[in-house]
Amino acid sequence: MSYECSKCKVEITKKEYDWSMKKFNHALCREHQNNNNSASKSKGLSKGESNYKEGMIKGRIAETLIEELFLSLDYNVFRYGMENTVPGIMKLLKGVRGDVASNIRRMPDFVIQKGKEVFFIEIKFRKSEEFKKSDLPKDYPYENCYFIIVSKKHIKCITYAELMEGKEVTPTSKNYLGSRKEFDLDKKVIINFCNFAVKFFKEV
């Protein structure tokens, strides 16, 4: 019995036929087997890559949400993280270890300023609405940083100092961004942006 490629009709061996049927569910010559492999790899992402990209997208949405919130309240907002200064660097640093790479990853997302006040801001999206000391990288250098935690329902805020004291952001904690006296924020504006968060993250 002879076998042939279902695409180019070239004759193939039984071994090639059996392998192709097992791998692709139809008969292919070596060339078309290789083409099929390449197409399969380019179609989708591995689970790990997919989760990484999904996390990046959610983080970017949360950052944009908070950036627009502060801009609407007449703050000057400057993107500070190295990924904003050198586009693509975070992708290059994926899996890279060392002091320099670690320090780049730790850089806060924003510097915000209004009048004479300037703040470091780090934005985190947390589906669980939880953030605590153990979530900080070891030897985190920005001791004057504020962490804004965006969830599906709330926008909360906690400082590095408060985390060191053992305080946490939890679903039941009352550390809402609108309650921070340092920022003097309009709670109505924050409620509007919380509604945006619900809209954007409702399927997460």
Report on the structure:
- The chain is an alpha+beta fold and 204 residues long.
- It has 2 domains: 3-43, no CATH class; 47-201, Trna Endonuclease, Chain: A, domain 1, CATH 3.40.1350.
- The protein is 43% helix and 16% strand.
- It has 8 helices and 7 strands; from the N terminus they run E-E-H-H-H-E-H-H-H-E-E-E-E-H-H.
- It has helices at residues 14-24, 30-43, 47-72, 82-85, 89-92, 99-106, 160-164, 187-201, and strands at residues 3-4, 11-12, 76-79, 110-114, 117-125, 145-150, 155-159.
- A hairpin with a 2-residue loop joins strand 4 (110-114) and strand 5.
- Helix 3 (47-72) runs antiparallel to helix 8.
- The longest helix is centred in the first third of the chain and has 26 residues, at 47-72.
Q: In terms of topology, how is this protein built?
A:
Layout: E1 3-4, E2 11-12, H1 14-24, H2 30-43, H3 47-72, E3 76-79, H4 82-85, H5 89-92, H6 99-106, E4 110-114, E5 117-125, E6 145-150, E7 155-159, H7 160-164, H8 187-201
Parallel strand pairs: 5-6
Antiparallel strand pairs: 1-2, 3-4, 4-5, 6-7
Helix pairs in contact: 3-8
Short descriptors:
204 residues, Trna Endonuclease, Chain: A, domain 1, two-stranded antiparallel sheet, alpha+beta, 8 helices, five-stranded mixed β-sheet, elongated
CATH class of the largest domain: Alpha Beta
Strand numbers in spatial order across the main sheet = 3-4-5-6-7
Strands, count:
7
Q: Unreliable segments (pLDDT under 50, ≥5 consecutive)?
A: none
Oligomer: single chain
Structural class: alpha+beta
Percentage of β-strand residues = 15-25%
CATH architecture of the largest domain: 3-Layer(aba) Sandwich
Over all CA atoms, what is the radius of gyration? 25 Å
How many helices? 8
How many domain units?
Answer: 2
Summarize the helix and strand pattern as letters.
EEHHHEHHHEEEEHH
